[in-house]
């Protein structure tokens, strides 16, 4: 099922990403850029109007000074300054009136259509999200059917167990090469193989395959360890294990299991929370 999910996701990306990206640029990015351009123009007009207001005030004050000088000395030079200042004041007033008209018009348009400018991009975004959900409905329905299939669930469970086994093999190989004391190794096999035997469903106390658990044999270190009573041997589950038979024991990561028996096939019998059953030894780590 995980492979099917990956395939569906890859196919979905290949089909939707180019079209959705183009639609996003056209329906969301473009309106946002237009709105940004409108407000940028308003800001620029506002800054220009402030400069024109400053120019207008400057020429008004200058004209007052020139007229005062003319009253004191009505010379041709002072008269020429007054006329020149009046011309500059008139030009500044024309520029101010024009920029003020443009700014007022832009502000009026923005005020009247502010909802449309803001909502345009948001509505386009919602429309694209709805399109994505509609186009993925069929693929999600197919995946949902897979999840309801018992065979698919069984395959997923087996795949999970296989991946856990392969990860454990890798860790054990690294532990053996590095002589790590935290990596338990089977005393009879060195490293467990892919062809692990099924668990003993009807173990016999006199069966030669059933052996007592000796902690000194479970460590990769060569230092001898004194065996402890069987009831005190506790292991911790390194992975989840889903039992496939009534005689097997479900494990969850971190479970503390009391080991009762060990079979040479690679299966151990243990007890956790009042439940007793068999589990693969490679799913656990012996606690010191």
Automatic annotation (TrEMBL):
Keywords: Coiled coil, Cytoplasm, SH3 domain. Residues 148-162 have a biased composition (Polar residues). It is found in: Cytoplasm. Residues 68-120 form a coiled coil. Residues 230-288 form the SH3 domain. InterPro entries: AH/BAR_dom_sf, BIN3/RVS161-like, SH3-like_dom_sf, SH3_domain. Residues 148-205 are annotated as: Disordered. Gene3D superfamilies: Arfaptin homology (AH) domain/BAR domain (1.20.1270.60), SH3 Domains (2.30.30.40). The keyword Coiled coil applies. It comes from the Eukaryota. Pfam families: SH3_9. CDD domains: BAR, SH3. GO terms for biological process: actin cortical patch localization; endocytosis; plasma membrane tubulation. The keyword Coiled coil applies. This is SH3 domain-containing protein. The lineage of its organism: Eukaryota, Cryptophyceae, Pyrenomonadales, Geminigeraceae, Guillardia.
């Amino acid at each position: 099922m995980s492979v099917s999910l990956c395939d569906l996701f890859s196919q979905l990306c290949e089909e939707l990403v180019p079209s959705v990206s183009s639609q996003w640029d056209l329906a969301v990015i473009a309106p946002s850029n237009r709105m940004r351009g409108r407000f940028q123009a308003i800001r620029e007009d506002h800054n220009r109007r402030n400069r024109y207001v400053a120019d207008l005030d400057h020429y008004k004050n200058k004209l007052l000074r020139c007229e005062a000088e003319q009253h004191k000395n009505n010379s041709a030079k002072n008269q020429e300054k007054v006329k020149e200042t009046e011309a500059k004041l008139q030009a500044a007033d024309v520029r101010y009136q024009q920029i003020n008209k443009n700014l007022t018009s832009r502000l009026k348009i923005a005020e009247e259509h502010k909802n449309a400018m803001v909502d345009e991009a948001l509505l386009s975004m919602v429309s694209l999200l709805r399109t994505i959900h509609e186009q993925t409905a069929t693929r999600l329905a197919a995946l949902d059917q897979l999840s309801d299939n018992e065979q698919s669930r069984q395959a997923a469970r087996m795949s999970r167990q296989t991946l856990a086994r392969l990860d454990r093999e890798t860790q054990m190989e690294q532990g053996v090469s590095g002589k790590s004391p935290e990596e338990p190794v089977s005393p009879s096999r060195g490293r467990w193989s892919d062809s692990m035997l099924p668990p003993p469903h009807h173990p016999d106390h006199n069966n030669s395959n059933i052996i007592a658990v000796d902690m000194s044999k479970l460590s990769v270190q060569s230092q001898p360890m004194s065996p402890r009573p069987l009831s005190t041997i506790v292991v911790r589950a390194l992975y989840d294990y889903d039992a496939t038979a009534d005689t097997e024991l479900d494990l969850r990561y971190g479970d503390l299991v009391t080991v009762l028996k060990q079979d040479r096939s690679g299966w151990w019998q243990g007890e956790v929370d009042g439940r007793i059953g068999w589990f693969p030894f490679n799913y656990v780590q012996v606690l010191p």
